Backbone:
């Protein structure tokens, strides 16, 4: 039922109730309209309520709507069913009364069939109510609850009798003997209410709303019965028959219970003295009722000359029940005493068999009892422990923590104190312990302390080992990156708070040049061995007040605190570089020489730890860019350079997505015949209408990894164009440059093979150019992949040959088809005799090996003539032809006259 429907029904019931109440003011013969209607409307309301409750019971059982109540031990469907039967019993009682009045005018001071039905409704209501609010568990608890409820009912009845029925008793005179028949309903209602009201506080959280609605409906019905009892005794209806609208309201409230609840849990039980209120609800109800009754009876006793016989009867029975209650309390007290004795026995048994140390201590620390486990845990004899205060065994630095124990005696708290202390064992070692200390009370004896202690030395040692592993490197044994970051943060924070002048704080970053090749060639295990050697060398060169850490990979970092002169930091950086390069590292049976690139950064007053470490890293990157074995001190422009490089990488990524890269082709000609034999594909970037050459962005593309997709795009586009030219009977080859990241990228060979298959270009037409550093940085894997390309038929060429990396060993490791002389050699032809001799040697070497030689950077006629005289096969440069679009190549190749050689 929705909210709007519930509101509509509430409005309808409210209007009916108000109309029913209004009938008490409308005369109809000798009585009011309400009195004339009698119990017919209330019987109809009770019947409707019963049917509604039975329907809701079946619905709840079918849908499982009360599953939360069932989880708490309640049964919502059964509760509604019994409440429905109770409502039908009230309906039957009302109908019986109404029919009897139609056909008979019997005495109101007698029990009729209708009264029996109405009285039978109360047990049904109690059963239904206790399905929502179950009885307290255990026979003893139930007996206590019933006795307390009876005391409460007797006290309440005494007040009702004194205030309401006692004057009527005197007025009845000779007919007072029939008063008991009229009091059946009030007495039964009071007993049931006193029995059920405490259960409201005991009800589960999930049924609290239903319990409150049900007890509210019963209170309203009981009020109607009270008014009806008075009507029976005095004759005329009270207030025009107001009892009937009141009872109508009670039945309406009871029938609406399933929809008022809506399966919403009530509020949680309030807490007092650390325990639930439900545990004391019967006692509170009984004590409160007796107290109020005592006050009322005392006041009345002062004013009344005599007391009715029923009052001593109620008081006497209450006293008898109180005696029963007292006997129960004595029995409970005996049970508690037995429990205390059993607890003591269990405690001593537990102490004997526990591996923990269990002590009972006096307030001054003297040992009153000690468990046998002490000898096993700490190696003491029991007599030794009992002879001296336990404080003598606690580490002096930990004695201050024991002050918290005084609060146990001062506040008499039930919560124990947990603390960790170091305790001296019999062998003199200090053991880490964890103790729980609580107040130990025994009747007739002073308060003591119960201490349970266990040895956690192994746990502490494991925790320290974990912390060491967390902040130290497993390969070198040095502090790791996390430790250095935390230490740098602490040092800078201390410097910021210190009022005294301190020296500089600096960080040195050191990277081993060429370490990647060691890992690739010798393996990671031997690489870790080399890192261990490097760490030992660096540790020997670093002063004790500095923190040396492994930053990660082949990088180390040094945090230097309170340095009086900045030059000392630079001197230390140079010294660290020297100890790395001073002698080769022993790796297996090989001597491997290494150098180090070093960056230095100083902390400014406003510099935080993250910025300081980043600056040192930036300086180290700058040192590597300058070459191997350099030391670089951080300057502000370095950070700007890094930011610019990052921004450039972002622009390159967007340009690749937008297709802003395009190709130009530089012809390569046969110097003998002046014919164009092939073209070299060169990438260009159209950045906002400006053509940008590769020297501006290739480095950033390498760092970001964009060179891999960009290189594949260049290869695919160039192969497609040359394939079209060759279909037109142009016998022309193609050269494309490769980077080390392209060669080492996953599935590189498969991608080249796929591009050739898709474009239809023959493999022997394609020449892939690599720098000699590919052979150095890529190691054996690069040579293997280039060899796989040669197996496909692709030609290989070494670009920029002669720049210092070249050796005959490289040419032997990788069979190449061509070598390209670096433009710097060609530029100095005829000007530098040494360069001219080296160029002639390279050309002769190529001819002897049967390798094609291509001279790059031909810009002057005399360079061309000298290369021809030396026997150079091919050449390219601005004198031959500048890089041009594909259409320019088509014009040049078509006429061949464009190359003025």
Residues:
């Amino acid at each position: 039922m929705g909210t709007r429907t519930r509101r509509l029904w509430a409005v309808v019931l409210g209007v009916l109730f108000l109309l029913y109440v209004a009938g008490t003011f409308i005369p109809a013969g000798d009585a009011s309209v309400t009195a004339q209607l009698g119990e017919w409307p209330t019987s109809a309301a009770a019947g409707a309520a019963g049917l509604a409750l039975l329907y809701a019971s079946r619905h709840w059982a079918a849908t499982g709507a009360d599953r939360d109540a069932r989880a708490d031990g309640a049964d919502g469907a059964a509760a509604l069913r019994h409440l429905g039967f109770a409502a039908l019993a009230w309906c039957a009682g009302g109908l019986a009364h109404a029919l009897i009045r139609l056909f008979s005018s019997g005495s109101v001071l007698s029990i009729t069939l209708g009264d029996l039905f109405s009285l039978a409704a109360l047990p049904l209501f109690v059963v239904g109510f206790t399905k929502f609010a179950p009885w307290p568990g255990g026979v003893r608890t139930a007996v206590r609850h019933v006795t307390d409820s009876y005391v409460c009912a007797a006290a309440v009845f005494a007040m009702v009798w004194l205030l309401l029925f006692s004057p009527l008793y005197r007025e009845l005179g000779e007919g007072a003997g029939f008063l008991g028949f009229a009091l059946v309903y009030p007495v039964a209602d009071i007993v049931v209410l006193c029995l059920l009201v405490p259960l409201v506080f005991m009800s589960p959280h999930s049924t609290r709303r239903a319990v409150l609605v049900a007890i509210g409906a019963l209170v309203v019905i009981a009020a109607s019965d009270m008014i009806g009892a008075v009507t029976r005794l005095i004759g005329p209806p009270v207030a025009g028959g107001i009892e009937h609208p009141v009872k109508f309201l009670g039945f309406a409230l009871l029938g609406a219970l399933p929809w008022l609840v809506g399966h919403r849990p009530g509020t949680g039980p309030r807490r007092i003295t650390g325990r639930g209120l439900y545990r004391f609800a019967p006692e509170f109800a009984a004590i409160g009722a007796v107290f109020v009754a005592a006050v009322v009876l005392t006041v009345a006793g002062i004013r009344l000359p005599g007391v009715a016989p029923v009052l001593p009867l109620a008081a006497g029975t209450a006293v008898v029940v109180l005696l029963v209650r007292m006997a129960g309390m004595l029995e409970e007290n005996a049970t508690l005493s037995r429990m205390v004795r059993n607890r003591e026995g269990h405690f001593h048994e537990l102490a004997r068999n526990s591996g923990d140390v269990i002590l009972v201590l006096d307030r001054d620390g003297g040992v009153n009892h000690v468990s046998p486990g002490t000898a096993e845990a700490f190696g003491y004899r029991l007599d030794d422990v009992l002879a001296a205060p336990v404080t003598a065994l606690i580490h002096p630095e930990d004695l201050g923590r024991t002050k918290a124990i005084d609060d146990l005696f001062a506040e008499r708290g039930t919560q124990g104190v947990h603390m960790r202390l170091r305790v001296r064992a019999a062998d003199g070692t200090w053991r880490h312990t964890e103790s729980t200390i609580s107040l130990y009370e025994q009747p007739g004896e002073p308060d003591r302390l119960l201490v349970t202690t266990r040895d956690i030395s192994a746990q502490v040692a494991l925790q320290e080992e974990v912390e060491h592993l967390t902040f130290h490197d497993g390969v070198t044994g040095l502090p790791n990156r996390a430790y250095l970051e935390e230490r740098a943060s602490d040092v800078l924070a201390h410097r910021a708070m210190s009022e005294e002048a301190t020296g500089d704080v600096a960080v040195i970053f050191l990277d081993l040049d060429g370490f990647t090749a060691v890992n690739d060639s010798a393996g990671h295990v031997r690489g870790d061995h080399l890192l261990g050697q490097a760490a030992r060398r660096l540790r020997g060169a670093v002063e004790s007040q500095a923190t040396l850490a492994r930053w990660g990979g082949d990088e180390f970092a040094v945090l230097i605190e309170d340095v009086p002169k900045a030059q000392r930091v630079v001197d230390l950086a140079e010294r660290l570089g020297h100890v790395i390069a001073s002698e080769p590292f022993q790796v297996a049976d090989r001597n491997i020489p290494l150098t180090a690139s070093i960056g230095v950064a100083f902390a400014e007053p406003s510099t935080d730890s993250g910025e300081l470490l980043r600056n040192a890293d930036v300086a180290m990157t700058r040192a590597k860019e300058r070459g191997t074995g350099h030391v670089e001190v951080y300057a502000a422009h370095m950070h700007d350079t890094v930011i610019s490089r990052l921004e450039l990488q972002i622009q390159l990524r967007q340009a690749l997505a937008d297709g802003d890269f395009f190709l130009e082709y530089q012809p390569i000609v046969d110097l003998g015949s002046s014919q164009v034999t092939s073209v070299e594909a060169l990438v260009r970037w159209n950045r906002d209408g400006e053509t940008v050459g590769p020297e501006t962005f290739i480095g950033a593309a390498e760092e970001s990894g964009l060179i891999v997709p960009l290189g594949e795009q260049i290869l695919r586009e160039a192969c497609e164009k040359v394939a079209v030219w060759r279909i037109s009977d142009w016998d022309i080859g193609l050269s494309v440059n490769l980077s080390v990241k392209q060669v080492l990228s996953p599935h590189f060979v498969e991608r080249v093979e796929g591009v050739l298959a898709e474009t239809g270009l023959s493999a022997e037409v394609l020449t892939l150019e690599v720098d000699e550093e590919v052979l150095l940085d890529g190691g054996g894997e690069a040579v293997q992949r280039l060899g796989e390309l040669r197996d496909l038929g692709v030609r290989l060429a070494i670009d920029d040959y002669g720049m210092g990396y070249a050796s005959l060993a490289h040419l032997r490791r990788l069979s190449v088809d061509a070598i390209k002389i670096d433009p710097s050699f060609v530029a100095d032809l005829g000007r530098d005799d040494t360069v001219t001799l080296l160029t002639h040697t390279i050309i002769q070497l190529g001819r002897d090996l049967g390798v094609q030689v291509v001279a790059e950077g031909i810009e002057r006629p005399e360079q061309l003539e000298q290369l021809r005289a030396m026997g150079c096969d091919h050449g390219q440069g601005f004198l031959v032809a500048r890089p041009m679009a594909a259409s320019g190549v088509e014009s040049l190749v078509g006429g061949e006259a464009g190359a003025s050689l």
